[in-house]
Queue: 2 jobs
Job 1
Amino acid sequence: MSIPANESTPQPGDDRLDVALAAALRARLLGTGLVAIGTVVVLGVLVTGLASLPTAFVAGLVVLAVLGVLALGLLVGVRHWVLRIDEHGYRVRALRSAQARSARWTDVLDLQATTVDGHRCVVLRLRDGRTTTLPVDVLEGDATALTETLSSHLDRGHGYRRLR
């Protein structure tokens, strides 16, 4: 099994893979947030000038904008995992497409590569009828390597070994 470039530093005996949002998507979200914060500040300054509000209003708005930029940087700029895969199962966070947020590999019926609304996805179908849809284009790393990693974890979870 090849190790994807997006893998966190493994500990001895640890077979965990943390996958974050793609860097391009994080940059786009960060840029959109910065534009929104800047627009609010500019509109606040214009309203303050037109309505003859005290300058303390603008100072407070700038302080809130700085706090907003810091919060945005922490939420979007830092690499946080959205998919965690280990030897026991998987966990998903911050993806709305995941009907089942976590499951053990023994509960996963199969894995399907499909297209949903024009986006490439991997769908993990569970035995109880729920699914987890992972849009591979918004996740960092190679989509093929991620699919192979999921497939190999699923095979091991079911006790299958690959023929060479």
Note: The longest strand covers residues 108-116.
Job 2
Amino acid sequence: MSCRIDDLRNKQVVCVKDGCVLGFVSDVEFDTESGILTSIIIYGRLRFFGLFGREADTVIPWKDIVVIGEETVLVTSDSAMCINKT
């Protein structure tokens, strides 16, 4: 399966260890010298409707990604930033 970065955005990210929803892919990081994707980024939740900024972003290294599906990305990352249990 081939996937564009635009297709990767807004996919739900789920931890396979405990089924915790971490959020949605907001951005990606890649190495400009080699052109290799290094991580995906989930933006932090807004604090008080965005008036007080956001929580810290969650960066998930590429090595922690298990599979990229049609609607979700399964990862083996720490679920400290869990939104809700599924």
Note: Residues 44 and 57 are 4 Å apart (CA to CA).
